[in-house]
Write a structure and sequence with these properties.
Blueprint: H1 4-11, H2 14-22, E1 28-29, H3 30-37, H4 45-53, E2 58-65, E3 68-74, H5 87-117, H6 136-152
Antiparallel strand pairs: 1-3, 2-3
Amino acid sequence: MSNLNEITKLIFDDISYKIIKETSKQVLTRKELSRILKVPSSNLYYKINKLLHVDALRIKEQKQIGNLIENGYSSEHIFDDNIILNKSYLRQNFEPFLHYYLLNQKKMLDLLEEDLNSESHEDNTKIIIGNVKLSPENWTEFHQLVSQFLEKHESTDNDASTIELVITAAKEEKYK
């Protein structure tokens, strides 16, 4: 397992984040990433190698171009939909989950910053931070409510706005 701080620092780096974002839907080479990100190709070697090292990026294709082999990179493995986490899942998949979670946090913070810098009076990003004590039964009920909400509002309507919901919940102390 890679160092938590190393992964966090890497994912919150703007160039690394953009590499992951751009390769989430399509396989791209270093040269294609360079063109899209408007960054010299040579500046991407280190970032790509670090992302490969922590498994935030994978080589999906290899093309022979003259004497060189050009790799095609993808981060699609990070973006599984509707992950339900429990201890056994996390034991097997902690790093992919960590990548997914940190990427969503980075995205949310970028959207919040964009919202703050815009001239619009409309809030596009909303964050609710709070603490609540739940019994084990209420904790289970909360999970069921969120799952039902997500299932009910799973949209196939192309005209609908996409709302990304990220809920973080952790049990800090034993319920008394």
